[in-house]
Every structure is written in C-alpha cells, then in structure tokens.
Amino acid sequence: MTMTAAQLILIVLTLGATAAILLSESHHQRRAARLVVGLAGLIYGRRRLEFQGELAMLQETTDDSGLSYAAGVFVAATVERVATRRPLAVDNVSKTLGTTKAVDSISLSVPGGTITALVGSNGAGKSTLINLITGIHRPDHGEIRFGGFTPDRGGNRNEIALVRHDVDLLTTMTVAENLSISPQPGRHWLISARSEHLQATRALQRIGATIDTRARISELSRGDRCLVSIARAVQTGCRLLVLDEPSTSLTDPGVARLVVAMDHLRREGVSIVFASHCLDHVFQVADRVAVLRDGRLVHEQAIAETDPAEVIRHIVGSDERIEPAG
Questions:
Q1: Residues 104, 105, 109: CA angle, nearest 5 degrees
Q2: How many C-alpha atoms does 149 have within 13 Å on its Cβ side?
Q3: What is the C-alpha separation between 295 and 195, in angstroms, rounded?
Q4: What is the rounded distance in angstroms from the CA atom of residue 216 to the CA atom of residue 157?
Q5: Which of the four pLDDT bands, split at 50, 70 and 90, describes residue 5?
Q6: How large is the C-alpha radius of gyration of the chain?
Q7: Residue 192 and which of 65, 119, 143, 226 are 20 to 30 A apart at CA?
Q8: pTM exceeding the 0.90 threshold for the entire prediction
Q9: pLDDT tens column, 12-59
Q10: How many of the other CB atoms lie within 10 Å of CB of 165?
Q11: Burial class of residue 43 in the structure, from the number of CB atoms within 10 Å of its CB (0-12 exposed, 13-18 middle, 19+ buried)
C-alpha cells in the first residue's frame, strides 16, 4: 500500500491522539486528544459522517475496554481510508462448464476507482466471468488478480463483494439487523441497538441512501433492498464490488438511486464491475463497457468514445439494431 507523506502524518496523529485518549488521566488532555482525532477526520473529509459516529463512540464510552474498541474501530477506518485504488486484472482466462466453453481466453483490466459494465446476450458468459472474478469458480486457464491476490485463495476475501439481482437478505429482520450480521473489520461481537442503527446509517450514507434502518426488509422496495445489500458489502471493507444484473426489475427511481450509490463508491476509490442488460443504466454510470459474445470478449471501449448503437452491433455481431438481452 502506497501512502503520501500527508496520509502518513494523518495516521501518526490519529494513533497518537488515540493513545492520549486511552492513557491520559486529565480531562482537558483527553478533550484535546479528541479534538485532534476530529481534525484528522475533517482532513480526510469524504467520510465526515463516519468520523462523527466514531467520535461519538469515543466521547460516550467511559470504560477502558469500550475506549479500546472505539479507538480500534477508528484506527481501522483511518487505515482503510488511505488505501490506494486497486486494479482488477483478468489475464487470458478460460472456463468450461460441462461441454460448453463459457469463458474463452478473456483478458480485461479494470482500473481502481472505475466502473466497467459487462454486456451481452443470454449465454454470452457474463455470469460465469463474474463467478470467476469473485472466486466462486476457478479458471481452467489464465489468472485473475486483485490487490496482489487471486480471489479464490481468500487473501482478500473481504475486499471483493458480490451482489446479485436476487438479493440475499433476511426479510424478517430489520435493515440494521441485516447490516449488523455482516463480517465487519474491527467489529466487536457485542454491540448495542443504538450503535447498530448508527453504524447502519453510516453505511447507507456512504452510498448516498436514506433508508429507515428500523424497517424490516420485507417492507422495502426491490431497489432499496439492493442498496442495503450494497451497504452490507461496503461494511466488509470491499474494494471491488461486483453486481450481477443489479437493475433487473427496478423502477426508474430505483435505478437512479442505484446510479447514485455506484457513483459514491467510485469516488471513494472502489472498483466496480457490473453485468447489465439495460444500456441506459450502462451509459449513465459506467466508465468503460466490455461486450461479451459466445464466451469471448469481442469489444471493449470507454463509454465516452462509443454509443448504444455501436454496443448493440457488437452484442449481436451485425448491424441489426435490437435491444440486448440480459
């Protein structure tokens, strides 16, 4: 992980202030240390709400074990904030399922902090490629690397998250409860209901979503359920978010909120790969588009340099103008 001098100074200040909070017996020194922590948070201003939440935990906790937990959460979050943007590299990957070569010699690069859309008709290989990227399947040939590891070896398991269109949430539980059971880095096994809702609100705020954290999942629209799943992925510390047909069955407002969430994460440096049959969605949010046909990558281009008609021609392999299938 590469850091600038300013980022290194920020971490040193944060660690020093945290130690002062834990060790100082002077009320005024403890308040001054909290101020330093707060200023460090404002310096890295993209996540002010999270820093405010962590400061609230530090200010409200009085026992040493609670302070240690709150400080640990803060330091872990600070280190995560200065993580560099990590590219995804798919190098000459192939995968055969049964007698079908579902993915055939695909090479694809996704720069850190960018969004790449995978498009193609049914059977083009989108879902299989997604399963390879997320480590569900292993390639028969070639290599996939993210953050210096291959996904199937678990070295960066929490950094890669998959959200499918058939959202996997516990519908009888609340939003906060669903988010609280995710494996969050630095998370203590015991947490109060108030902190549970605070952390859920922070996770949703990170993706620009406003959802009642006390609502049951069964009460939410399909679009809001998708946002909760994305927020849950964010809580695991993911740096690569993979979405499989996220806009399926969403209304126009639902797609608009999804676009906002993806844009928030892109600005945080999260890499995103998503499969979609909706070219309107692709052209709203993607930086690049990759067209798959019969298991092969047949076209890849920056969104700014192409248009829907050209993408459709590559999808169908002709000049026939039809809407692409999922």
A1: 120
A2: 15
A3: 46
A4: 28
A5: low
A6: 22
A7: 226
A8: no
A9: 666 666 565 555 555 555 555 555 555 555 554 444 444 444 444 444
A10: 18
A11: middle
Token pair for 140: 């028969």
User: Rounded to 5 degrees, what are φ and ψ at 309?
Assistant: -60, -40
**Closest by CA position to 185, among listed 46, 83, 40:** 83
* Cα dihedral: 20, 26, 31, 32 (round 10): -60
Torsion-angle region of residue 61: left (phi > 0), alpha (psi -120 to 50) or beta? beta
- Banded pLDDT at 234 (limits 50, 70, 90): confident
Give pLDDT, residue 247: 84
The neighbour count for residue 4, using CB atoms within 10 Å, is 9
What is the three-class DSSP state of 324?
coil
What is the rounded distance in angstroms from the CA atom of residue 73 to the CA atom of residue 65?
Answer: 12
Residue 36 makes CB contacts below 8 A (sequence gap 6+) with: 13, 14, 16, 17, 20
pLDDT in tens, 238-265: 889 999 988 887 888 889 999 999 999 9
**In terms of residues, how long is the chain?**
326
Distances, alpha carbon 172 to alpha carbons 23, 200, 218, 249, in Å: 43, 17, 6, 21
Per the listing, tokens 């069955």 go with: 249
Phi, psi of 135 (to 5 degrees): 85, 10
In whole angstroms, how far apart are CA 116 and each of 50, 100, 113, 259? 28, 25, 10, 13
- In 3-state terms, what secondary structure has residue 174? strand
